[in-house]
Automatic annotation (TrEMBL):
Pfam families referenced in this protein's UniProt entry, alphabetically: LRR_1 (PF00560)
Chief location category: secreted
Annotated keywords: Leucine-rich repeat, Repeat, Secreted, Signal
Keyword Lyase tagged: no
SUPFAM superfamilies, per the entry: L domain-like
Locations listed in the record: Secreted
Cellular component GO terms, alphabetical: extracellular region
Residues annotated as signal peptide: 1-23
Composition bias, Pro residues: 29-41
Protein name (record): Uncharacterized protein At4g06744-like
Region of interest (Disordered), ranges: 29-49, 419-441
Domain of life: Eukaryota
């Protein structure tokens, strides 16, 4: 009795499995893609990165001195001089930062953060926090920062900094965090920022940068890479998957071409990735399915097409999936709807044609949105004429056989019906979507 039940369950699963697969046959190796994960990218350099607190505490330095009595100050004359130059250039200072930039003790200046400089073991300027200061005037970022040699963090979103970053920032030996979002930078990608090889947080959102991003950006060792809401264009370089960043936002630029196959190589690190709002085209590489630590995957509002690869069933931690407003088609794979952490899967405004029982269950739970597709029998679908026009043209993808590849043992939970507690689980808010909100100016 029992083996019989197991066997029929197995059959049932297999039926669902293959019923919705696009290409059911895969020629034998070497044409068949390998099922082992793609090789880890070889990182050219390994960096020792200072982490918060500002400088590495294991150095056993003097404790941070009180700002009112910091003792001798590192680079005092140089920092006071560049501060006065910046102050002269600031024509608008609604929060009166510059009113406090008087005297010889820069630790008391508003926006200046002091700490013990590791290699000098005296107090120095470790951080700048001008976030939201809304300074006006002609402010030269590069000239300012290169005169702050002990700096670890520079936060200056929503100001009027501009200017060319015309040489590397590698004179800043402790620098690890840069936020220049919502300033007035323009021109090509500031490759010289990549000279600051210890950066762990690179935020260039909401500027007016144009043109291609260099390959070196994705060999650059950083945890956070926010370049959304600029006018970057051309392709996403093929070494994209080399990036060790956990959080990446490429959203709302002008990128074209396909999502690079190398993306699968980032499976150890990639946690949230937003391609939303570009002009990406072509079919999805099945290698996306290697991303089993990714919680947020967003390719909404592009020109992507093709079916959803069955490999998406391997994205065991996926919570938020947005593929809306593209030209995807075909059946929605049941393996996708079995993912144990599915929380908000938005597939609306495409040309999908079928949903199976697992996907119908997610629709009922309001976790899957398939509005405005071509799924017969469901409400809120496109008109027959609209669908007819779309499918009148033959639609194919390169590497068709890879769409049925499942490069993992499917997560166990995905083969079971989810428990009630899992259904109630609300995942933590993703970090990357906040990056799409413009810092207040
Ligand atoms: C994620 O994928 C890698 C490589 O494909 C595999 O070794 C690892 O066990 C997977 N982890 C989970 C949680 O599935
Ligand atoms: C820093 O200076 C203090 C006091 O002079 C000393 O005790 C400590 O050992 C110094 N630390 C280093 C790493 O030189
Ligand atoms: C700015 O702050 C300084 C020092 O706190 C104060 O003396 C000055 O009056 C302030 N200026 C304005 C315009 O509020
Ligand atoms: C911002 O800087 C630019 C020069 O980069 C200048 O033309 C403009 O007037 C400045 N805007 C404000 C509000 O100060
Ligand atoms: C201040 O303005 C002058 C003249 O425009 C410019 O050469 C200089 O680089 C600016 N310095 C800073 C720190 O903004
Ligand atoms: C990066 O940090 C290491 C270790 O703190 C340091 O030796 C190196 O000079 C730094 N690199 C740059 C470009 O500042
Ligand atoms: C985006 O790129 C296309 C060509 O790929 C170009 O025609 C268009 O002007 C670009 N848009 C902007 C805002 O630069
Ligand atoms: C689900 O995701 C879509 C697309 O990212 C978003 O527009 C929508 O607000 C989300 N819904 C919920 C309930 O979070």
């Amino acid at each position: 009795m029992l083996p019989q039940t197991l066997f029929s369950t197995f059959l049932l699963l297999n039926t669902y499995f293959f019923q919705f697969a696009i290409a059911q046959t895969c020629p034998p190796p070497p044409t068949c893609p390998p099922l082992s994960p793609p090789p880890r990218p070889t990182r050219t350099v390994t960096y020792v990165r200072p982490r918060p607190p500002l400088y590495n505490p294991s150095l056993r330095l003097l404790p941070r001195q009180p700002n009112s009595n910091p003792g001798p100050l590192a680079n005092r004359a140089r920092i006071l001089s560049i501060t006065q130059e910046l102050k002269r250039n600031i024509t608008y200072d609604p929060q009166n930062y510059t009113g406090t930039w008087v005297g010889n003790n820069y630790c008391l200046f508003k926006g200046y953060i002091c700490d013990t400089v590791p290699d000098r073991n005296i107090t120095g300027l470790a951080g700048i926090d001008f976030n939201g200061a809304r300074f006006g005037g002609n402010l030269n970022f590069y000239r300012f920062i290169t005169n702050l040699p002990d700096l670890a963090i520079f936060h200056a979103n929503s100001n009027n900094f501009s200017g060319v970053i015309n040489q590397g920032l590698n004179g800043l030996r402790y620098f690890y965090e840069i936020d220049l979002s919502n300033n007035k930078f323009m021109g090509g990608f500031p490759s010289n920022v990549l000279g600051a090889t210890n950066l762990t947080f690179v935020d260039l959102r909401f500027n007016k940068y144009l043109g291609p991003v260099p390959r070196s950006l994705f060999n650059f060792d950083t945890d956070v890479l926010f370049i959304n809401n600029n006018v970057f264009s051309r392709i996403i370089p093929p070494n994209f998957g080399n990036t060790p960043a956990l959080y990446l936002t490429l959203a709302n630029n002008n990128f074209t071409g396909t999502i690079p196959r190398s993306i699968g190589a980032a499976w150890e690190t990639m946690t949230e990735v937003l391609f939303l709002g570009n002009k990406l085209s072509g079919c999805l590489p099945f290698e996306i399915g290697y991303l089993n630590r990714t919680t947020v995957f967003d390719v909404g509002s592009n020109r992507l097409t093709g079916p959803i690869p069955q490999s998406f069933g391997c994205m065991a931690r996926l919570q938020l999936l947005n593929m809306a407003h593209n030209k995807f088609y075909g059946p929605i794979p049941e393996v996708l709807c079995r993912l144990p952490r599915a929380f908000n899967f938005t597939l609306s405004n495409n040309y999908f044609t079928q949903v199976g029982p697992q996907c119908r269950r997610l629709i009922r739970l309001r976790r899957l949105n398939v509005n405005r597709n071509c799924i017969m029998g469901l409400p809120n679908q496109r008109s027959t004429a609209d669908c007819g026009r779309f499918f009148a043209r033959p639609r194919t993808c390169a590497r068709e056989s890879t769409f049925s590849v499942i490069p993992c043992r499917l997560p166990a939970a995905s083969l079971r019906t989810r428990t009630v507690s899992q259904e109630d689980e609300v995942p933590p808010a993703p970090r990357s979507y906040n990056a799409l909100v413009k810092p207040p100016h």
